[in-house]
């Protein structure tokens, strides 16, 4: 195979950055806005997230004795963490988010070598239920932004609805008629166009970009010393486990694309890289990181499977993390534009959960009950958290988070039904013939 020049590798690396930039930038915007960060704090959150995406990517690309799957993968914040982080930040404060990240990252490091055995606890009926709960519980946040933001005096103004509608239509058009690359970057392109239209409507002030400095250093514990809350740690650990299941699928897919047969040790190093990235993310006040599947499509599209391209992508992301002007520009995206993009992206998370559930055999009543109760408990608590407010403190560790409550319901019911499963007469007959 012909050696890839640095110029071409850099251009392909930049393409990978563009494909994942929307997810990398929108996650801190959503979380930061929801927990009431100032514009300056929001800009730092975006910048540190970009920086950590680069660090996490390089941790995964370079193989050491303990970390790195060694595939051309790009890492970014997992969307399954958005809802849980908002809930933790709203109830226990932002420092509890980072305490939970550090603790959950350590747990992931510890169990990484055993995860292939633990993964059986997350069959499609459980994993699909969890992802669906996360996606659906996030949609109200998108609707609030589409209307102009929670508490806006002109909430639901036609200008806001028009901008959100334009953003959604553009995403649909690029997904339907665009090239493979523009499909991967459809949300980013639509958000940029929507922001330009909002600027033409006089809804954006670019003075914060002019006032922002060109360079800033990343700062450990920028938002304060981490605090450790049992409910928050359990929530983020469950998110981490779900992320590991999703990453396994991406690793195996990329292994096939790159003709690399992955061993259990390769997968364990990949899990450890994600755990290490999550710990570092907690220290520098960013997010948990997972492998981005949209970049797998670019590997297939370009046919370039070398890790050199991803090294450049990681380097570009790290550089962006030191440039406050870029991060500040991102924070100027109007809420309706962001809300329109969020509606599509969060809906996609829910749809991913439904897609996973499509692999479930719903002819079995056990599976129907498992999904029904998991969704009922998770979404019920999400809609009315006061229902568990009077429970003892020890029990509320398991019920305060809709994600934890729904996930544990699915895990418990799945385990119960498996343990008490009885073979039908026809199955017993088939087994007798085999014996």
TrEMBL record:
Similarity annotation: Belongs to the nucleobase:cation symporter-2 (NCS2) (TC 2.A.40) family.
Signal peptide: none
Domain of life (superkingdom): Bacteria
Transmembrane segments: 12-36, 42-62, 69-90, 96-115, 122-143, 158-177, 184-201, 221-242, 309-331, 337-357, 369-391, 403-420
Topology term for the membrane: Multi-pass membrane protein
Lineage: Bacteria, Bacillati, Bacillota, Bacilli, Bacillales
Keyword terms: Cell membrane, Membrane, Transmembrane, Transmembrane helix, Transport
Protein name per UniProt: Nucleobase:cation symporter-2 family protein
Organism from which the protein derives: Exiguobacterium antarcticum
Pfam families: Xan_ur_permease
Keyword Transmembrane on entry: yes
Compartmental location: Cell membrane
Xref: PROSITE patterns: XANTH_URACIL_PERMASE (PS01116)
């Amino acid at each position: 195979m012909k050696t890839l020049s640095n110029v071409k590798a850099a251009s392909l690396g930049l393409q990978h950055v563009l494909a994942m930039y929307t997810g990398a930038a929108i996650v801190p915007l959503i979380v930061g806005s929801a927990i009431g960060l100032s514009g300056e704090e929001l800009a730092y959150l975006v910048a540190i997230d970009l920086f950590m995406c680069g660090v996490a990517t390089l941790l995964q690309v370079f193989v050491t004795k303990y970390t790195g799957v060694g595939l051309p993968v790009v890492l970014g914040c997992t969307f399954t963490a958005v809802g849980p982080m908002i809930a933790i930040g709203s109830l226990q404060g932002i420092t509890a988010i980072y305490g939970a990240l550090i603790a959950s990252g350590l747990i992931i490091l510890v169990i990484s070598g055993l995860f292939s055995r633990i993964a059986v606890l997350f069959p499609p009926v459980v994993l699909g239920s969890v992802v669906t709960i996360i996606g659906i519980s996030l949609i109200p946040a998108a609707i609030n932004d589409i209307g102009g933001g929670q508490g806006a005096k002109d909430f639901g103004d036609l200008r806001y609805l028009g901008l959100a509608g334009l953003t959604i239509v553009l995403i649909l058009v690029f997904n339907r008629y665009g090239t493979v690359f523009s499909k991967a970057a459809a949300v980013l392109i639509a958000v940029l166009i929507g922001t330009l239209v909002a600027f033409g409507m006089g809804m954006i002030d670019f003075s914060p970009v002019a006032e922002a400095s060109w360079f800033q250093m990343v700062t450990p514990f920028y938002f304060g010393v981490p605090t450790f809350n049992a409910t928050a740690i359990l929530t983020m650990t469950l998110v981490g486990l779900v992320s590991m299941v999703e990453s396994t699928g991406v690793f195996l897919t990329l292994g096939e694309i790159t003709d690399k047969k992955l061993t259990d040790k390769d997968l364990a190093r990949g899990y450890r890289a994600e755990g290490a990235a999550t710990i570092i993310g907690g220290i520098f006040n960013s997010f948990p990181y997972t492998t981005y599947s949209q970049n797998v499509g670019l590997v297939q599209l370009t046919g370039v499977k070398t890790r050199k391209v991803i090294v450049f992508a990681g380097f570009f992301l790290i550089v962006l993390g030191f440039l406050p002007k870029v991060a500040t520009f991102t924070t100027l995206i109007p809420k309706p534009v962001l809300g329109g993009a969020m509606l599509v992206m969060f809906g996609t998370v829910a749809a991913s959960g439904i897609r996973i559930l499509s692999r479930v055999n719903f002819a079995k009543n056990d599976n129907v009950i498992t999904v029904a109760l998991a969704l009922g408990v998770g979404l019920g608590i999400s809609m009315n958290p006061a229902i568990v407010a009077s429970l003892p403190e020890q029990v509320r560790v398991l019920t305060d988070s809709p994600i934890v409550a729904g996930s544990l319901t699915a895990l418990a019911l799945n385990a119960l039904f498996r343990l008490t499963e009885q073979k039908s007469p026809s199955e017993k007959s088939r087994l007798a013939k085999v014996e």
